[in-house]
Amino acid sequence: MDLDQKPFLLCLDDEPDNLDALERIFRKKYQVLKATTPEQAFHVLDNYPALSVIISDQRMPLITGVEFLEKSITTHPDTVRILLTGYTDIESVIGAVNKGQIYRYLTKPWDPIDLMNTVDQATEKYLLKNELKQKNLALEKALHELQTLDKAKNQFMILINHELKTPLTTILSFASLLKETLLSDEQKLFTNRIIKSSEKLKSIVEDVLLIVKGEVGLIPKKMDRVRPDQFLKDIPAEITQSLNSKTQTVRMNSDLDTIEVDLLLTRMALFRALHNATKFGLPQTEISIRVGKQSSGAPLISIENKGPHISETVIEKIMRPFMLDENIMNHSIGMGLGLTICQTLMKAQAGSLKVLNIEGGVRVEFVY
Predict the structure, then answer these.
(1) Are residues 96 and 146 in the same domain?
(2) Is 120 a member of any domain?
(3) Whole-structure pTM over 0.90, yes or no?
(4) Higher pLDDT residue, 157 or 204?
């Protein structure tokens, strides 16, 4: 209903004088539709789907008010119904109130102020019900869109798995076989570059697939109590090489004997954060890893490195998958998904990621 338009009010009474009296009471605030017979009233129902309130007299020659109001439920389920009745009808009306879904019944002669207040409250009830109905429809639409999005993400994962990983596996397999044959130095160079680029693309595909899995809640978790010294076992060679080339060291301190985490997911996240720390940290500095608790008592793992701060814009992009840093065109930077994947892995454990600029460097926190 247009907010600037007066609400529609249907009045049914076989006495024209009563209808005129009702019209005088309501005409300033409502568009009053009058009917002296049930036939006229049903005609109004057919032509006015958005009726806020129906007022019906109980005693009429062909049909009672309760019977008419009951029939009106079929076409106007949200309309609020009010019954006017004489004192002698009250006992019979009380038993039929639920049948006609009557909001209130008022006795004749009515009090104009009480009647106006009752109709105003009934109209407000109708408008609120209609607003709630519209909001529910909007929520249903939003839910459908979310379900469609989830379906699209699942289809995307199938696409990534089949349409990209399968040919990549084929390329790597045949390139490896080719490498075992007799090749010239130039051919060996070309083959090595094919393998290196294919491995890089495979890594990107797996990263993207991991984030999409996290977004749709498909990363399984297994929470166990583990010792913190288990986190740094078997550090990937890429991280070790970076640490050695920049003469960086890693030191780990723990205030806890054990911590409840998913060991596999935590190690994956920790290695991603550690790779970032050594990559952007200053040479000949120490990277500090601490396992402890927050002031709230929640477990916390933090990784600190000395080096340049991260801008708020970049931190925001880290928290939003696939929003890449402006240096993305510099191939040495990569996809910029390292800390984004950390966040995905923390969400899978019902935790969160924090990236903080501290004095002289950056701290990444895993909050459980």
Answers:
(1) no
(2) no
(3) no
(4) 204
